[in-house]
Amino acid sequence: MVEEGEETISCPVCWVSSDPSEHNEATATTPGDLSSSAESSSQQVIFAKTPCNHVYCRTCIERILLPDVATMGTCPMCRTTVSIFDLRHATTEKSLYPSNSDVSSWPIANNVYKQFSVGRRRGLQSLETDDIFRNTSFCFNQGHVPKLQYINKEDAGEASDADDLQSGDFQRYHFHPQSMTFHGKLDFATPLSRPCGDSMRYSYSSFNCLLQFSSDGQYIRDGYIHWGYEPTTPDDYPLDGKWRVEWEDGEPLEIYVQKHCFNCVGINYEITLDDKHRPRFEWPEAARGFFRQQRNVVQRSNQQIQPGARGPSVGETLEWSTNLASFSQIVWKRISMELSPQSDGRRLRIRPDEFVYRNADFQPQLPQYVATSIWGNTFCQMYTVGLASYHFVGTTVPFGDPLAYISYEHPHTDVWPALDNGEKFPDRVPFRNIEWDSVERIFKGDICWEELYNTTWMGEDMWHYEIKFDPKFMFIKSGTCTRSNSEEPHQFGQDLVYVNAALESVLRGIRETVTTTGEYLDVVRKWRQDGASGPTLDMLGEVSMRVLDNRAE
To answer: Residue 538's closest CA among 367, 386, 382?
Structure first.
């Protein structure tokens, strides 16, 4: 009950009240509803207050903050960015999620997460050109406090030995076990200086991150990392701060200038003052290539920045010109005079379709090849295991394990739709109603979404598979996948192209035993005789040529 003199609170989303009797009367429409409401409200509702001082019941605000980038969202009342870790008890003002808990109790304890690329064709393109993002690791295996590991040397680049790496303790951190999300912040005692060109350097005074881990804790599937710029004073660097850049035929963009250096569309620039104290800079070769310019490009302003002056004020502009007709006038409008480490700096989004951080101790099980049976083999599309790959475990497995299943364990699947009830679809979905004809090499089985998970996926409750394999079980020759709500079944060998996940290791073994390239290619040509479709031959040929090229090197 609400104590005398205590203000009644209600949630603006669901209208639940802190006064149980008021809640019961307001929500009950029948005697049965009244009984049910009284029972549900016998447990006191917890109300949470956001940093912007808006109050919601804890259930509603957490439901708002947990989807998308987990634990982060916006206040429904004023659209202010809110973290679930910012929530306080509405009456006691105590944090609902105390910071700096013991790491040893977390499910990711004892793990170290390092960068790795996703997909065999993708590298860390966004990291390769920016040393501040390279060679960072997250360590949860060194005592009770999480650590950031980073390079601690002026020239950055690849770490040559252990002395090049430095570890710093996160000074403030949270972990939300339900969503497997970590927030951490670290302030450097001495700012880190990193090169961004021949003579340019950025200085960073802080690091913060939001990391959401996969359900099994083996990789970081979403979030961001942010290096905060070291604040500078306008007296020393009068053009430092945040600017809006506009030119005639381009979209406006924002840049951060620190120590008269800035990065624009991935290219670093350095501003200097000439003998008349006028700003100027040259476009580096990368910028000329980006804008398809062969000659040197100089960008300059006629506005003088006298010694001791602080440059244009907020809202004022700095006009530039270049020796290119298409960029004859460029205007910078000052947004802020100083940089804030909390909001200004270099941020990189961690996305499951680009790169992730993976547990350094994770050792994925390599696919095996069985030439005489379906059992023991794995078949994958795009030559990627875990991207809806088919795993045929065997006919004798422990009770309760499936004979075969579809794996959705690759990070790319994290961007796929959730189940229709809002839950993330499972990492593995077992086949049901399995039939195997060893003479015709035909597998039949069902994926029963409704039966297994009490919901549908993309409006479909069941998929029925009929799959025919080649004589050596190197690829899926033909077959169909019929979905409950689809008019036409998907065709294996056409829109569903699957090959054995151990194909590359098999081909390497063949390449080691034959004496000529012709003998190797004879093995490859036999796939056409075994009934491989055109798209399947393309995938088989791509893998076989990669093996051949590697041998030639």
So the answer is: 382
Tokens 């960029």 sit at which residue?
327
pTM of the shown model: 0.62
At 26, list the tokens: 């307001």
Phi then psi for residue 538, to 5 deg, are -60, -45
Q: Is the pLDDT of residue 122 over 50?
A: no
Distance CA 544, CA 542 (A): 6
User: Which 3 state secondary structure label does DSSP give 71?
Assistant: coil
490 CB burial (10 A radius; 0-12, 13-18, 19+) = middle
Give the closest residue to 183 by CA, choosing from 102, 64, 109, 84: 84
Phi, psi of 539 (to 5 degrees): -70, -45
Q: Which residues partner with 223 through β-bridges?
A: 211, 350
Is 432 within 8 Å of 444 (Cβ atoms)? no
Tokens, residue 174: 């949270």
H/E segment holding residue 430: strand 428-430
Which two three-digit tokens encode residue 243?
Answer: 């600017």
H/E stretch holding 515 reads none
Structure confidence by residue, pLDDT tens digits, 63-104: 888 765 667 788 999 988 888 888 999 989 999 888 888 888
